[in-house]
Predict the structure.
Amino acid sequence: MDGQALKMGNYLVAYRLADKEQYAIENITTRQVIIVNRMMLEKFRHAIRENEPDSLFESGKLGEGLQAGGFILPQQTSELEIVRMEEMQNRFGHPEYMELWIAPTYNCNMACVYCGQHHVAEKGVMSEEVQEAIIKYLRPTFPEKKIASFCWYGGEPLLEPEIILRLGRQIQKLAEKHDVETWHRIITNGTLLNDATVSILRELNIKHAQVTVDTLP
C-alpha cells in the first residue's frame, strides 16, 4: 500500500466451496478468484460493509493480493467505465486497442463431443513462418496501440509450450519497446498444467485461464 486512498470493488461475489471451511471470492470484472477461510471471509465482509479496505492489509499479504486482483481499487477508479470501455473494445474495436487470438496448434489430447475440429497429428502445429508473420504484423501495429490483448487457444495450446514461450517472449519484447500494455489469457483443458507450463504462463504474465474439460480422451 503506497498511501493512496482506496475503496472496495463493487462487483464481488463470495460462495462456499465443497470444503465447507473454504470460500471463494470472485471479482466478476477482472475474473480473479481467491480462496479464503471463514475468518478471512468475515474480515472481507467487514471491509465491504464499512468500506475499510485498509483493514485487509493487516492480514499478511491478503491486502496486496486483493489489490492486485482488482478487489481493492484506488478511490478514483471507475469500474463502470472500465467495463464500458472493455465492452466497446470487444464490440467495435478502438484505435488504441487491439486483440489477437493465437493458436500454437490445432491438435488436442482430448475428445470433447461438441468439438468440430479435426485433429491431425503433426499437421496442425504453427510453423516458424507463421510465427515470424505474427511478429512482422505487430512491428508496425504496436507503435499505434496502447493496449494489446492476446488469447492463446487451439486445439490444446499447451501441447506446444515452446511455441507459446518463444512467440510470447518476442511479443513482450516488442511491447516493452513501444510501451504497449499487454493482456494475456489462455483457453486450455487444464490436463497439461504442471510446474513447467505454469512457469511459462507466469513468465508471460498470462493471468486468466479458461479451463474446459468436457470429455475424457
